[in-house]
Amino acid sequence: MNDYYQDLGVSRDASPEEIKRAYRRLARKLHPDVNSGPEAEDQFKKVSQAYDVLGDAEKRRAYDMGSDPYASGAASFGQGFSFSDIMDAFFGAGAGGPQRGPRSRQRRGQDALVRLDIDLADAVFGAERELTLETAVVCETCHGDGAQPGTSRRTCDVCNGRGEIQQVQRSFLGQVMTSRPCMTCHGYGEVLVSPCFECSGDGRVRTRRTLKIKVPAGVDTGTRIQLTGEGEVGQGGGPPGDLYVEVNVRPHATFQRRGDDLHCTVELPMTAAALGTTVKLDTFDGVNELEIRPGTQPGDAMTLRGLGVTHLRGTGRGDLIVHSNVLTPVKLDAQQEDLLRQFAALRGEERPEGRLAPAGQGLLGKLRDAFKVK
Q: Which CATH code fits 256-370?
């Protein structure tokens, strides 16, 4: 009987990993594609035959007890070794396909994405909100195991716990062994005798839960907040994915946001714009006084420093930009009309000549410049 341990150069108590490493080393050295020596092919057959026996736990056990599956005659070239073994020998573990053996029932959960609508004030100062989510959580009955409490799993009868089925096919190398996941146990190597009644063996159930989230100051529409580990729990009670909260800031009736600055418009009577005055504005920081300079024109911008949106990354806040809208009186009584005519006469404006303003200096130009992206 052949001494397969000697053929691979390993001891009889060598571990499966030591046997696989020895085979890879020899296969890279002796394969006919890289070694054209007269004895290389025969030696490669010998090494492949040895690995086919010692690399299989059942065959190795039978061989150690005195049985040799190749004792009746020499094997044909390539018989018994798998295509993935050759790929592993030349390119390392995993080159021939997925890892052998049963796969884990646990899988990482999927990431989840939800939308959160907030007010502009929440974006200015930040806020804390509650989210109601419908996501997968660990089954409380089986605690993610998938089996009904008090029951266990049994080894798959089809693949004998390997999680894969091997098939022998002919190729240019001879008989090549290929593997595919077992359809009976779906590659797990085990079959649930009695799946959990609550989750049907999945290890997780869907339910509604409430989550508190802190919305940082400075967020804007489209900002995504990542909450690590708050997504879907994985199959088999696997680790959860992440939760992404996409912010949507509702439009405000008074203020418009441009970057971290806020813009608004104040309406002024013609006399107040001409003479100057002080007006009170309701801002997110309470009531603030705004000084109107004498001779304020339509579209003029006045700045209140530090009353805008908090910078998301950094310190401080943007500004509040106030635009003036000068109102011209529409209906005048006789006395008011007479006074305006006297005023026009004093300024020599009874019959003014209209003239076009230079491009960019009119009201439209001022408004365009004020809202230009900085």
A: 2.60.260.20
